[in-house]
Q: What sequence folds into this?
C-alpha cells in the first residue's frame, strides 16, 4: 500500500495530519485535496465516442432520451464506489485482486480485455481529434501527432499533482458544452418531460434501442473500474478519507450526466425542425450543424 502525503490538484494532506475535520472550512479544504479520481474517471467518459453518441441521440430523437442519463447516475455511483473502497482498503489494483481471488488466468484475461478495449477507445479519441482539427481548419496530419506527444508528455512526467492538474484543465474545457446548451435555447418544457417521462420520440425502434444501449455503454465502461481503483492507490487515499472520495465520485457522476445532457439538449435544439433532424452522420456534421443553427 502506498502511504504518505496526499498531493492533490487543489491541496495537500500530510501523512502526519491526524486532526479531526470539525469545521466546514477544514472539510472543504480536505475535499479539495482529495477530489480528483472520481471526477476525472467520470468526465473521461465524455470523450469523442460519448460526445458523438449524445449528439446522435439529440439529433435523431430530440429530448426524448434524456431520461436514460438519470437512470445511469446510481449505476455509476454504485460501480465506482465499490472500487474506491477496494482500492483504499486493500491498496492493490483491480486486476491484481481478480488474480488473487479467481486465479492468474482470469487476471491476465481481464488485463488483455481492458488493453484491447483501451486501444480501440484511444483510436476513437484520435479520430475525434482529427475531426475537431478539420472543423477548425487544422491539418489532421499535424494535430493528431502533436496531441499524441502532448498526452505522452503529461503521462510520463512522473509528477502526480502535475498530471492531475492537467486532467482538470481538460475537464474544465469539456464543460464548455454547458454554455453551448444555453446558447441553443432548449425548450424547457420538453427538457423536463425528457428527463422525467421515459419514452422515445417516434416510438421504439431497432435504431432507438441500439442508441439507448450505446448511451449506457459509453457512460458506464469497464476501464473506469481499473482506473479509479489504481488512481485512489496512487493518490495514497486510505480508509480514513473514504467519505471524501465517495463525495468525489458522486460529484463526478453528476458532472458527467450534466455534460451529456447539455450535448443532447444542444443537438436536439439545433436540429429540431430542420432537414437534418433524424439523419445523423457523424460528429463532424453535428459540429457544422451546431455552428449553423445555434446563435447567441
A:
Amino acid at each position: 500500500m502506498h502511504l504518505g502525503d496526499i498531493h492533490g490538484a487543489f491541496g495537500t494532506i500530510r501523512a502526519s495530519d491526524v486532526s479531526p475535520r470539525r469545521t466546514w472550512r477544514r472539510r472543504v479544504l480536505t475535499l479539495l485535496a482529495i477530489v480528483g479520481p472520481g471526477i476525472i474517471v467520470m468526465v473521461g467518459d465524455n470523450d469523442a465516442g460519448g460526445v458523438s453518441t449524445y449528439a446522435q441521440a439529440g439529433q435523431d430523437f430530440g429530448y426524448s432520451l434524456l431520461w436514460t442519463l438519470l437512470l445511469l447516475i446510481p449505476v455509476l455511483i454504485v460501480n465506482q464506489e465499490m472500487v474506491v473502497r477496494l482500492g483504499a482498503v486493500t491498496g492493490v489494483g483491480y486486476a491484481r485482486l481478480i488474480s488473487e481471488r479467481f486465479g492468474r488466468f482470469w487476471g491476465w484475461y481481464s488485463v488483455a480485455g481492458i488493453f484491447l478495449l483501451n486501444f480501440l477507445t484511444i483510436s476513437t479519441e484520435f479520430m475525434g481529434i482529427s475531426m475537431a482539427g478539420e472543423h477548425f481548419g487544422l491539418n489532421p496530419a499535424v494535430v493528431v501527432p502533436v496531441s499524441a506527444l502532448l498526452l505522452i508528455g503529461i503521462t510520463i512526467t512522473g509528477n502526480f499533482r502535475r498530471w492531475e492538474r492537467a486532467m482538470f484543465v481538460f475537464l474544465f474545457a469539456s464543460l464548455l458544452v454547458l454554455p453551448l446548451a444555453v446558447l441553443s435555447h432548449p425548450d424547457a418544457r420538453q427538457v423536463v418531460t425528457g428527463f422525467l417521462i421515459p419514452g422515445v420520440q417516434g416510438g421504439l425502434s431497432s435504431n432507438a434501442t441500439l442508441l439507448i444501449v450505446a448511451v449506457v455503454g459509453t457512460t458506464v465502461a469497464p476501464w473506469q473500474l481499473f482506473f479509479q481503483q489504481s488512481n485512489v492507490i496512487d493518490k495514497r487515499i486510505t480508509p480514513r478519507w473514504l467519505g471524501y472520495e465517495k463525495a468525489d465520485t458522486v460529484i463526478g457522476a453528476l458532472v458527467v450526466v450534466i455534460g451529456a445532457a447539455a450535448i443532447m439538449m444542444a443537438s436536439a435544439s439545433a436540429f429540431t425542425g430542420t432537414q437534418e433532424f433524424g439523419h445523423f452522420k457523424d460528429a463532424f456534421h453535428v459540429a457544422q450543424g451546431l455552428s449553423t443553427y445555434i446563435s447567441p
Q: What stands out?
A: The two ends are 52 Å apart (CA to CA).
